[in-house]
Amino acid sequence: MQFFFHNKSNRIWLVIIIGLMIFNIWNIIVNTPMVPDQHWAQKIFYVHVPSAWVGFISYFIVMVSGIMYFIKGDEHWDIVGLAAAEIGTLFISLVLITGPIWATPIWGQPWIWEPRLTTTLVLFLIYIGYFMMRAFGGHAERVKRYAASLGIIAFVDVPIIFVSVKFWAPEIQSHPQVEMTSQPPGILIPFLLSLGIFTVLYWLMLKYRIHVIQVNYKSMADV
Amino acid sequence: MFFTLLKKELFIEFRTREITISMIVFGLAIILTFAFSSNVSPMIIVNFAPGMFWIMVLFVTVIGVHRSFAYEKEFDAFSMLISAPIDRGLIFLSKWVSGFIFLTIMELFLLIPFYKFLMIDFPIQPWLALGTTILINLAIMVVASLVSGIAMRARLSEVLLPILLFPLVSPIIISATKISGSIMRGEPYALWDIWLLIILTVIVVFGLVGYTLFDFITEE
Questions:
Q1: How far is CA B83 from CA B11, B20, B78, B171, B173, in A?
Q2: What's the Cα-to-Cα distance from B49 to each of A12, A43, B35, B171, B199, rounded to whole Å?
Q3: Contacts of B174 in chain A (CB under 8 A)
Q4: Which residue of A129, A148, A156 is in closest CB contact with B205?
Q5: Where is average pLDDT lowest: A4-18, A180-194, B79-93?
Q6: Do B219 and A136 touch (CB under 8 A)?
Q7: Phi and psi dihedrals of B129, rounded to 5?
Q8: B170, B201, B217 ranked by CB distance to A149: nearest
Q9: Which residue blocks in chain A are alpha helix, DSSP H?
Q10: Which one, of B93, B112, B166, B148, lies nearest residue A146 by Cα?
């Protein structure tokens, strides 16, 4: 099987995405306005929210792959599910790192049981269990089915977790930036740009990871 | 067929009493630990009793569901069960309902020790407490049966089960603690109806998901 970056279009996409990410960081640091009471801490928002967006898209893909794996019985969907779970967890970890960094100067402490952050943490823990199942589950074919069903169950549980945490501690203020549509264009446009760049980055990462897992599966099958 | 499967679960349990006895004894041990760790201080216990109760139930549930699926491993009984020409969703339903019955029996046995050892007053509205507890038991057991069906035949099942179960049941534990706390304080229904709705949502959603998925999960 061919090395992923031997393919010309993949190489071009890699260069484009590196360029876009460098532009994104420059744009966030130089061009976005300072929010009066948040200063530099607010800049992390342009990374934090796109990471959460990509993480949740990824977990949605895990759920869809799980459903497709059960319907079609095709190993390809298991590979897509695993790749999406890995990358999703990477971005969700970024959310859990950047969230407290942003929260410290805003709320005065790194962790508050804010509904979105808490839902992300619970989902992260479910996915730690998912990877433990993948690693220690034993029988390979059964583990694929268990992982597919866990991906479905985890995503179904998300809205229930969110609602319960939201009502659990209503006195806890929500995210510092709630209404994006009411933000001035100076914040909204760089934010949407960052969201788009993160999504493209995610797409290439997913494609790469699917390729790597396919190679691994093939080499294991050849042994 | 569902009633035949349920009868099988109950018959095995009433013959061996393995699950209920383990659950009751483990629950009692947890109550004693809570009593010792809180110094039976009324200030601590009044605020934390609902949470303590549902943590105990959660731990005991892990023991119960694990045992319920583990004895199916003996002589590979589960493989024979799923090779029978029956709807596998019914196996899930029978595990759910039997688990619910065992959990409720365990709670009935542990209710008096819980209130007496921790020196707290019984709820003002005992029937309301009982009704909501039954619904919460159904919600905990539907998720536990589904997760147990997934983890049971995996290697390290005893480790994977709580790791997968605890985050998934977090909305139930939040809701259960809020409902029990409100009933203990005699608060009106309007203040805690949202939590009951969450519990009902879990029962319906996970009941349907479990019934549908169990066929795929147990496929050979």
A1: 21, 28, 8, 35, 36
A2: 61, 43, 10, 18, 20
A3: 164-165, 168
A4: A156
A5: A180-194
A6: no
A7: -60, -40
A8: B217
A9: 8-26, 45-72, 75-107, 115-136, 140-168, 185-222
A10: B148
Contact assessment for residue A160 and residue A6, using Cβ atoms and an 8 Å cutoff: no
Give the closest residue to A152 by CA, choosing from A42, A32, A69, A35. A69
Q: Identify the CA nearest to B28 among candidates B86, B107, B88, B84.
A: B107
Render pLDDT for A12-55 as a digit per residue (tens, 0 to 9): 999 999 999 999 999 999 888 877 777 777 888 899 999 999 99
From residue A195, alpha-carbon distances to A50, A123, A172, A208, B214 in Å are 5, 21, 27, 20, 37
Q: pLDDT tens for residues B118-164? A: 888 887 788 888 999 999 999 999 999 999 988 888 888 888 999 99
- Please state, for a pLDDT cut of 70, what percent of chain B lies above it: 99
Q: Report the alpha-carbon distance of residue A171 to residue B154 in Å, rounded.
A: 42
Distance (Å) of CA A124 to CA A86, A130, B126: 11, 10, 38
Structure tokens at B178: 């809020």
Tally of structural domains, chain A: 1
Interface test with A, best of B212, B213, B214, B220 (most A CBs within 10 A): B213
CA gap B79, B218 in Å, rounded: 9
Distance CA B164, CA A122 (A): 11
**A13, A208 in Cβ contact below 8 A?**
no
The C-alpha angle A61, A100, A90, rounded to 5 degrees, equals 30
- Between chain A and chain B, how many beta carbons pairs sit less than 8 Å apart? 93
Contact flag A168-B178 (C-beta cutoff 8 Å)? yes
Read off φ and ψ for residue A39, nearest 5 degrees.
55, -135
Do B216 and A154 count as a contact with CB atoms less than 8 A apart?
no
Q: At what angle do helices A140-168 and B157-168 cross, to 10 degrees?
A: 30
Residue of A nearest to B157 (CA): A137
State the residue range of the domain holding A115.
4-222
Query: Rounded to an integer, what is the distance from CA A108 to the centroid of its chain?
Result: 26
Quote the CA–CA distance of B168 and A194 in Å, as a whole number: 32
Residue corresponding to tokens 């897509």: A80
Cβ-nearest to A132 among B146, B160, B166: B160
Q: Dihedral sign, CA of B31, B36, B41, B43?
A: negative
Q: Write phi, then psi, for A35 (nearest 5 degrees).
A: -85, 125
